[in-house]
Design goal:
The complex is a heterotrimer of chains A (about 240), B (about 230) and C (about 240). With about 240 residues, chain A is α/β, with parallel strands linked by helices. Chain A has helices spanning about 50-60, 80-85, 100-110, 115-125, 145-155, 175-190, 230-240; strands at about 10-20, 25-35, 40-45, 65-70, 75, 85-90, 160-165, 190-195, 210-215, 215-225. With about 240 residues, chain C is mainly alpha-helical. In chain C, helix 2 (about 50-75) packs parallel to helix 6, helix 3 packs parallel to helix 5 and helix 4 (about 120-140) packs antiparallel against helix 5. Classes of the chains: A alpha/beta (about 240), B mainly alpha (about 230), C mainly alpha (about 240). Chains in contact: A-B, A-C, B-C.
Amino acid sequence: MPAPLGGVRAALAVRGLERSFGHVRALRGIDFALDAGDSLAVFGPNGAGKTTLLRILAGLLRPHRGEVLLDGSPLERTDAAHRRRVGLIAHYSLLYDGLTAAENLAFYARLYGLRGRETLVTRALESVGLADRAGDAVGTFSRGMVQRMAIARALLHEPWIVLLDEPFSGLDQRAAVTLRELLMRLRAERRTMVLVTHNIDEGLELATHVAIQVAGRFAEFGPVAGDLAAYRGRYAEATASHG
Amino acid sequence: MGELLRAAWAIAAKDVLLEFRSRTAFVSALVFTALVLAIFNFARDPTAVSAVDLAPGILWITFTFAAMLGLNRAFGLERENRALDGLLLSPVSRTAIYLGKVLANLVFVGSVEAIALPLFALFFNVPILPVLGPLVLVIALATVGFVAVGTLMSSMAVNTRLAELMLPVLLLPFLVPPVTAAVQMTARLFAGRPFSEVSAWLRLLVGYDIIFVAACILFFESTIEE
Amino acid sequence: MTPIEAFERARRRSAVWIGVGLLLMATVYVRALVFTPVEAVQGPAQKIFYIHVPSAWVAFLAFGILGVTSAFYLFLKDPRVDLFAASTAEVGMVFTTAVLVTGPIWGKPIWGTWWTWDARLTLTLFLWFVVLAYLVLRTAVHEPGQRARYSSVLGILGALLVPFIHVSVYLFRTMHPMPVVLRPGKPTLPGAMLATLLFSFAVFTLFFAALLWHRYALARLADARARAQAERADA
């Protein structure tokens, strides 16, 4: 059930988003709005279209219908200014295994045209606890370290919208805890976040809003109301009715 | 414009650094080149056909096939960890991505050519020094043409299952004008003919470069954006 | 009428026209073999020219249509345009192959060899390779949107390539002169032969149009069925 749209200049608003791949309708009309500092957790089974939604928000995919509004203005794929405001953390790292940690970050700093590259890179590595591995090739890193690198890369250009695609997948306990801490810090910094996952146990504590996405639509969307058990119930219900 | 070139340069530099570290494609291309040149040398009858007659064709076959070993590399390395998404997420224009890849491929192919050419002169006993200037110009022009088209084709080929096979299938027809022109001009240069004789071929080659570089820049976005 | 029914009807109708086209083809054969004078220099072998030249005309027409529709797709992003382009490529492939087969059949009795690097045949050969690349690319890409984009880019680049290959072959020939027997003499063709040729042009064009219509209807039909199936799976 679509929620009423936010104020005129909601930080992130989505209207009537539709997208198909051939005859497969991945998104059948998504509507929501978030204010600055809100965190949306989107739960949904595989095939619900969560990654498609995220890729459209990131500007990597063009919707067939509908629009995405950042601060009230439409997200044009070709608009470089908009891309600076968005960061993506996924379960793949977007890094080059053959380059060192420092080289990877320096490259991204160049792509984003950031000044003071060296200090930026050092500080980013320190913030994720990888300063001592700056000169090591990313290909030698463990999964948890790679995820931390991915976060450092995603936040390098200080995006105020952070998108997360199954960020906890493949992480062990320790790495998951580190990731959770980092994300809580982002939330404290009042960045707008959208996290998609099929695992309802991850991400609920980070969220101010929750959506349940099934078969290309939001079965529900609204501020967090109730605890994990309550959501588990509703999630099971929503996914069952779509078999 | 400046930002475009700077971004392209950053991407090219990153690619060259990565290739330099792993060296696999470069070494394969060099080994391939040496083998092809050696085999061609043994495959002909020196009393029946002189080296100078066959040489231009052999040189260009070697260049183009060695180049094709490396062309898929440019977008192939963006597939690990979905690094291409990283490029597309950033504010750099798609044209900068294309130009960066072309530049990196030019460095790769140019390096192979720079090593293959002296080898070729050695194996086939062809006097390249007297015509080195014009020869390098011809090689440069033809290389720009087929690398530009090859880079675009590889952006599509790497997304298919048999990428190594798909690239030649897509690219070879497009090599006909530049390679034919290059072979004809190379042959005349080796034969010591005056440059005026090849002016028609030169115009064909330059025309091809201009039209296809422009077309590839224009259409690259369609191959990369969804 | 549902889309599927509409396309079924188009399929049946176009099949009728294909039948008409085949019948007319037969009359072309009869006219060429029986009612057209034998050419003085080349003898009966020349008669294949009434098949060869119109095939070449259709092949190049198809290629031109492919280039234009590819450009339209990139502007409009309409999947129907992509299906039309793909149909044109397939049908065009048939006629291009016909040119490459009839050319040597014509050339062998006259020159003694199956293949010479005649200007037009060489150009057609490279056209054939480009259309082949187009069809292979389509089978290698599964997502329909990506397939359409890739095909369109290749279609446009292929169309751009044609003049360059033509010039390459022309320059090559002027450096290495070759017999020019395989040139359809245009205004110098005597009345009866010209009439047969023009008749053949008309028949071939009609046949091409019928085949294209039919192939396009089949493509739209398959697409409509796939959509219906996807919609049923949703419900």
